[in-house]
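Schema walk-through. Below, the input block comes first and the output block second. Nothing else is stored per chain. Lengths vary across the set, and this one has 169 residues.
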Amino acid sequence: MTDDALVASLQDAFWREVEILLFHHTNPWELDEVLVAWGFAMGPCEAQDLVGLDVVRQRQGPPVTPVLSRMVAEGRMGKKGGVGFYRYPGRGGAVIDPLIEDLIREEAWFARVERVEVHDDALVTKVLDALRDILFQMRSSGLSEHDAEQLMTEALHFPVVRLNDLRTV
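--- output ---
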């Protein structure tokens, strides 16, 4: 697998987990804020907006929730379109868009998903658990620990100083 394919695979797996967390527990700005405060260089929702939600959706394969598909269908393409998980007035910086929280809650309601708010630490734990699983899969496919960790820091902006947190179970 090429480096670009590995990056895309890693990002897709991470972003699928993010979508599940949004659907069941939180909203984009709270999740991004928690992960940036924990040490990520950028929140995953804002990162997806930069890539383009249509690109993320197309790469993702079968939808894990109806959220991303609906966002793209409504023209929420991310920063390039001026709106995604956030609004980008004048193509500037990210601004909270309460309509996206309504969209997520509405889709959860239609799917009969009972949303349960969880503490910030629990969100980080859920993200780390998902990343450990992804890291394990990469290592099982023959990628060295060093290369897998380097990929995590480059593709996900995972904080280098926190790599030990992925090694603990």
